[in-house]
Design goal:
Helices cover about 70% and strands about 0% of the residues. With about 130 residues, it is mostly helical. It comes from Paraburkholderia franconis.
């Protein structure tokens, strides 16, 4: 990928995390975080990363909890104890964008669009498929 595009995507994700961490989030910023988490998941499935599946599930649960809080209190904030998980996943995605060929990133984006157009609640399994042997 073009270096400028990688920087722009990375900056967007990291700024979304800062805003959501500091209580200045909104629906768009939380969607940006989950888009990045899911892109990292899809690219990891292509061989770019080894983050435990539990990290991705923690991110999902954290966003679900934040959305529930926003619904009842209009406060858009991530739980403090989950921020480090997002930091790791964003760092993973940064490294993926720096190392994965463009066709792998495009394929991951296609998978993300398919997931978003479908009815599944998550593309990430509850358990690590490698642990199911």
């Amino acid at each position: 990928m073009a270096e400028a595009s990688v920087r722009e995507q990375s900056l967007s994700s990291h700024l979304a995390l800062v805003a959501c961490r500091d209580g200045h989030g909104n629906r768009h910023l939380f969607n940006e975080l989950m888009r990045t988490v899911y892109m990292a998941w899809f690219l990891q499935q292509e061989g770019y990363g080894k983050e435990p599946v539990g990290s991705f599930k923690t991110a999902e649960y954290a966003v679900e909890a934040a959305l529930e809080l926003a619904h009842v209190s209009d406060e858009w904030v991530l739980a403090e104890d989950t921020v480090s998980v997002f930091e790791r996943l964003l760092a993973l995605h940064d490294s993926q964008l720096a190392s994965a060929p463009l066709h792998k990133v495009i394929h991951a984006e296609k998978r993300l669009r398919q997931f978003l157009a479908g009815t599944a609640s998550s593309p990430v399994p509850e358990n690590d498929p490698a642990d199911m042997s």
